[in-house]
């Protein structure tokens, strides 16, 4: 039975059995005529309060999904969240290790550049700072690209799931700051050791090892 047929059946039933009270707990009595009602809530934390409110309406209402079932479901979500956090941590470590190896390979040809800068009077700290500024610039570019992708995916989610801007706005802000923080942190952590190893060599070592 589709929605139109159900509404027609409800109207016929009310006409055959007129009721003086057409409102029950601020809900139209007509909406309580079906044998089963499915209530959707945006906030899962409001389920216990909503169950108590529904039970207070009438003792004849039977709730099929109980609060205990919600607790078990919430525990399952917690386990899944912890597993995803562990996998994310492992992936971050792998990405940091791979990027560190890549930076080692990229910085080896720059030993000549380090030798020239040191011969001009630059200290190791000055050269490390120059290299770190390049990493931060890369991090900004990656953050901008990731933010653009997040905007596109958020718009797709809003279209598919019929969401409003308020539903994804907080998620979007949190994701933006998380992406920026992770991008800059991973780049700096993975590039710090290769940069320092390359920049700490002396001018004599540069000539001797690369001559």
From TrEMBL:
Keywords: Cell membrane, Membrane, Transmembrane, Transmembrane helix. It is a multi-pass membrane protein. The chain crosses the membrane at residues 83-106, 135-157, 169-196. It comes from the Bacteria. Residues 86-201 form the ABC3 transporter permease C-terminal domain. Its main location: membrane. It is found in: Cell membrane. One of its GO terms (cellular component) is plasma membrane. The keyword Cell membrane applies. This is ABC-type antimicrobial peptide transport system, permease component. It comes from Streptococcus oralis.
């Amino acid at each position: 039975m589709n929605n139109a047929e159900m509404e027609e059946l409800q109207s016929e039933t009310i006409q055959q059995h007129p009721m003086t009270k057409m409102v029950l707990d601020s809900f139209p009595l007509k909406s309580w005529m079906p044998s089963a009602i499915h209530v959707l809530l945006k906030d899962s934390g409001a389920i216990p309060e909503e169950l108590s409110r529904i039970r207070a309406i009438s003792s004849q209402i039977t709730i099929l999904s109980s609060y205990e079932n919600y607790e078990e479901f919430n525990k399952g979500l917690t386990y899944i969240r912890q597993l995803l956090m562990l996998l994310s941590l492992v992936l971050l470590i792998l990405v940091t290790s791979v990027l560190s190896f890549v930076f080692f390979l990229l910085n080896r040809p720059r030993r000549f550049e380090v030798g020239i800068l040191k011969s001009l009077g630059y200290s190791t700290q000055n050269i490390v700072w120059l290299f770190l500024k390049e990493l931060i610039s890369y991090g900004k570019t990656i953050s901008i690209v990731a933010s653009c992708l997040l905007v596109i995916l958020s718009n797709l989610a809003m279209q598919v799931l019929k969401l409003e801007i308020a539903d994804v706005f907080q998620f979007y802000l949190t994701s933006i700051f998380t992406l920026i923080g992770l991008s800059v942190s991973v780049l700096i952590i993975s590039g710090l050791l290769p940069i320092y190893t390359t920049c700490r060599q002396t001018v004599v070592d540069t000539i001797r090892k690369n001559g």
